[in-house]
Amino acid sequence: MILASTPTHALPFAVVLAYAAWAWGQPRLSTGLSRWALLLVGLLHLTVLHRHFTAEPPTFGFALALSVTVWWVFCVFALETRLHTQAALRWTVAGLGAGAVLLAEQLPGTIHPHLSSPWLPLHWALGFAAYGLIAAAVAHAMWLQRTERRIRQGKADADGMPLLTLERMTFRFVGMGFVLLSATVLAGGVFSAGMETSLVWSHKTLFTLLSWVTMGVLLWGRWRWGWRGRLAVRTLYVAAGLLLLGYVGSRFVLEVLLQRLS
User: Fold this and answer.
1) Burial label, 120 (beta-carbon count in 10 A; 0-12, 13-18, 19+)
2) Residue 110 contacts residue 61 (beta carbons within 8 Å)
3) CB 233 within 8 A of CB 144
4) Phi-psi region of 155 (alpha: psi -120 to 50; beta: other; left: phi over 0)
5) Mean pLDDT by 10 residues, the chain (262 residues)
6) Distance between CA 69 and CA 72 in Å, rounded?
């Protein structure tokens, strides 16, 4: 069941303030201080996640999965800022990070008193990484569309990211996310094989496999026929939407909607 209430902790609010302070102050900081600020925000968010996973009893749910995914996106953003300025995404990343942390505090998920298989942590870790990289690909695809619109309107892009470079980065994240998603599916199969029951064709399994197939088609089309532009971006959005429905969507229905109806 969902925990009805949780003790008030100052740490999540410190993370929210850190995200807001970093987003506001980043243009005013030197390169060295900006990197230290990124490191501090990432460590604070990671500390909140660690507290959730080491709580007694441990809990997990869709909000915590979103928080982990956003933390991965923030890490990708932090690494990229060493090469390219990303002012357009700064407030978006900060808002997502702060919102995900607060949501995980309010909806910590269901209780997991023990692990049903030693493969489960590996399955979760690979899944989180895949979610993060695919979310980063979606963020870059949205940025790509924004840049294309500005070019058509004859406006200079203040972010300084060349269009072709941004496109290559987007598909690199798609490729890395696809590899990790493939490993997640494989680990999930091993995890199910190690249990007494066979693989359960739940909503999570179905949507995850549909997302995996869609992403594979996208990469094949990119390699074979040079897919780009709206077709490629919309296919990526479909794949990411299916993946989101796979775990986060199904857990949201179970943890929030059905609980409210019961």
Assistant:
1) middle
2) yes
3) yes
4) beta
5) 49 90 83 86 90 73 81 84 66 87 81 57 74 88 84 66 82 91 79 53 77 93 89 92 77 58 42
6) 5
